[in-house]
Amino acid sequence: MAAPKKGRGPAGGGQGRPGRSLALILIVMVALAGGMFLSGHTTPRLGIDLAGGTSITLQAKSQPGKPDAINETNMNTAVGIIERRVNGLGVSEAEVQTQGSSNIIVNIPKGTNSEQARKQVGTTAQLFFRPVLTVEAGGSDATPSASATPSGSASPSPSASASASAKATDGETAEDSGKSDSSPSPSATTQGRAVTGALTEDATPSASASAKATAAATDDAAATDTASPSASVDPATAKLQAEFAALDCSDPKQRAAAGQNAKDTDTIVACGSNTPGTYEKYVLGPAAVSGSDVDNAQGTFDQTAGQWIVSMEFTSGGAKKFNKITSTLSQQTSPMNQFAIVLDGEVVSAPSVASALSANAQISGSFTQQEAEDLGNILSYGALPLTFKEASVTTVTAALGGEQLQAGLIAGAIGLALVVIYLVAYYRGLATIALLSLLVSGILTYTIMALLGPGIGFALNLPAVCGAIVAIGITADSFIVYFERVRDEIREGRTLRPAIERAWPRARRTILVSDFVSFLAAAVLFVVTVGKVQGFAFTLGLTTVLDVVVVFLFTKPVMTLMGRTKFFSSGHPWSGLDPKRLGAKPPLRRSRRVNSSTDPKEA
Distance (Å, rounded) from C-alpha 473 to C-alpha 471? Predict the structure, then answer.
């Protein structure tokens, strides 16, 4: 058998065609860079510590009849809902966390949708569908509220009264055929208290129709004919009448307080506005459908009506409730055939019901596109279990973060310079391969971070910058492992090209194990931590994966090509692969064994 040729080794995969790997990674780089420029996002998104923004402190308010409502479970639930609301708007790097037992801190970076997110974070979004029992003109910003008497009769302004009367007449013609014009019977009032949702909206509730429907409503008692002064009124009804008579919806304080802290089983008074600057006040029955019965909601444009609406889809249980109540209300007279969509105590819409409905509903009104989308986003992610008030709102400047970023970049530059000096001094010509690999890794990291901003809301914060700096050492370590394996093969007496291929399997195994450990640490850190530390973990994991890609698709193929050049293959003193400098051993030669049993002469 012929002895193997000196210096020959196994041909590793890719030895013959390293150009394919280089072409692949070049295509990936061009695609990422092209996507970055075409999308218009040429820089990574910055977190609040670098870009500035708003820090909001929300304080939970105690609720009447619920002394233990402010607890850890409700606070954590509120944090999750607020976080989903903000993320649903595409706001990057928003931070939501509890502080103490009753405060929530929300940090919203400056940028797209940040102001919109600020409006939504503390909105309780308690949604109820309540039947309308009584409605009257509630005043306007320019005109004082109509003076209402305890009996429930109102004297709205002439213009409001005329407009309301015209609509009431139309409504009675369409809806009340064959029905009495007298005040609703007690049974009708009770039926009207079941709640619903509807598709048609009575833009301006009728004051005259409300008078016929009665201005007083009891909680589960028949409506009282307020025209008769001798009629007996129980204390609960009298209190409700007094609240309704005294309510001035043109007063912002009264408007904000109406309907607050009420249970879903209560009969309440509330304010609403169908026309900017003009308000209506309502007596509303107990809720039959709540926001928890809404499965999905989104703002859409109604082409038929030419306005923005909020379309809602109910859960199976909510659909049954909705169908039942719309069936009941469709048989009532105006305004008893209306239901009020009440959000956080305010009537945002009061549509009338013409027929029974089931799984879907729409909230229509004077919505702008932004308002419709905001309301849809809030309803989709659910109501907060607690009511909050803004304890403080602080504007955070990026000055301090900018200084820290500058210091971090300087530190990174110094670290990179030291790595370059070490590589050049110790590896000489091989340092070129290492620097090119670091450049490719940097390009891939930057373009991916820039695209992840609009893609998944990733934002670069200071810890993430630290993770990217640490990644320089991880990437350089992979090159060093491979270089040292190649040098070990040369020390054993092999020539460069076989040494490159024989060194690769062992180096590859070491690199994969090392990067797997780094990625596992980053993944665990990302899962068990919150806030900015997750930015460090995410960046560390991303750069670790890119290290594997660069070593396999760039460093190894380039090393193979370099090994074919005279500068490296001849062992030039500045190549970093000089056999003499490495102390290479001469090739081992096999010697013939002497058989002791053989005659020395024959040997």
Answer: 5
Q: Where are the beta strands (DSSP E) in 141-293?
A: 147-148, 154-155, 200-201, 268-275, 278-284, 289-290
Containing 105, the helix (H) or strand (E) segment is: strand 103-109
Residue 492 has pLDDT above 80, yes or no: yes
Number of C-beta neighbours around residue 508 at 10 A? 19
Q: Tally the C-alpha atoms within 13 A of residue 324's C-alpha that lie toward its C-beta.
A: 13
Cα–Cα distance between 152 and 233 in angstroms, integer? 13
- How far is residue 29 from each of residues 154, 440, 469, measured CA to CA in Å? 73, 8, 21
**Judging by DSSP bridges, how do beta strands 346-349 and 200-201 pair with one another?**
unpaired
Terminal C-alpha separation, the chain: 21
- Whole-prediction pTM: 0.53
Q: Using DSSP, state whether 279 is helix, strand or coil.
A: strand
Query: CA dihedral in degrees (363, 367, 370, 375; nearest 10)?
Result: -30
143 pLDDT above the threshold of 60: no
3-state secondary structure of 154: strand
Mean pLDDT value across residues 145-166: 32
Q: Which residue did the predictor score with more confidence, 244 or 147? A: 244
Average the pLDDT over 533-550 and give the result: 90
For 363, the enclosing helix (H) or strand (E) is strand 360-367
CA 510 to chain centre: 39
Place of tokens 């089983």: 265
| Residues 6+ away with beta carbon under 8 Å from 339 | 129, 130, 131, 132, 195, 196, 197, 198, 325, 329, 350, 351, 353
Quick one: tokens of 404? 């820290």
100: left (phi over 0), alpha (psi -120 to 50) or beta: left
Contact 524, 538 (CB under 8 A): no
302: which strand partners? Answer: 307
